[in-house]
């Protein structure tokens, strides 16, 4: 059984003539420890799929199994536990708490996690050891994204879900963030799913999943994923 088995998932919004199928029978699988890239144009259903994978939204039909657990069949209490214990999220616009420092943002996440966690050490690992006491507004976009990655890692997650993590960053900073995500996947043996519009990122992936109009139109395993430093776009 793959780590993620996303099978024939439909997610509808609205009803009757205004109904939209954001997902329209999407299926894909990801193995444990892989870095998967979900690629597709705007409106293809990528974020919807990521939200369902993270237990933040439910499927209208279909089955979603993560680590042998059927989350499409889970009740709200089980989903809360799943989100807290297993899943880290990284968003395009970081979603940090503005009146907390970098350290406090990460500590806040660490509070709801069962394992002991050293927030300062993790901020050091993402390259922010010197900026612990800065508030988000005092940090650059790339630094804020590093805080958000440290916050996601506070859960000691098995699955890291990243929605356009470089969408708000310039080219060089975006590359550094992608390198950090790739290194984190390799070093911590976490399964990482990155949603993007950027076709060049196919080269960094162990597995590439292409979305179009709510469906998966192609899924390829990449035998030779490249370090970000070697990818240009
Ligand atoms: P983008 O790259 O622009 O973020 P995406 O591939 O992530 O796009 P989704 O955000 O998953 O696409 O949206 C897929 C489709 O579902 C779009 O047509 C979108 O307008 C629609 N949709 C998503 N969420 C909702 C919602 N809450 N209510 C109604 N329609 C929605």
Automatic annotation (TrEMBL):
- Residue ranges constituting the ABC transporter domain according to the UniProt record: 4-231
Q: What are the UniProt keywords, alphabetically?
A: ATP-binding, Nucleotide-binding, Transport
The question of whether Nucleotide-binding is a record keyword is answered with yes
- One short Pfam family name for this protein? ABC_tran
Coiled coil spans: none
Source domain of life: Bacteria
Determine if Magnesium is one of this entry's keywords: no
Q: Name one GO cellular component term.
A: membrane protein complex
Molecular function terms, GO-annotated: ATP binding; ATP hydrolysis activity; transmembrane transporter activity
Which PROSITE patterns would you find in this protein's record? ABC_TRANSPORTER_1, ABC_TRANSPORTER_2
Q: Which family does it belong to?
A: Belongs to the ABC transporter superfamily.
UniProt-recorded name of the protein: ABC transporter ATP-binding protein
Q: Which organism is it from?
A: Thermophilibacter immobilis
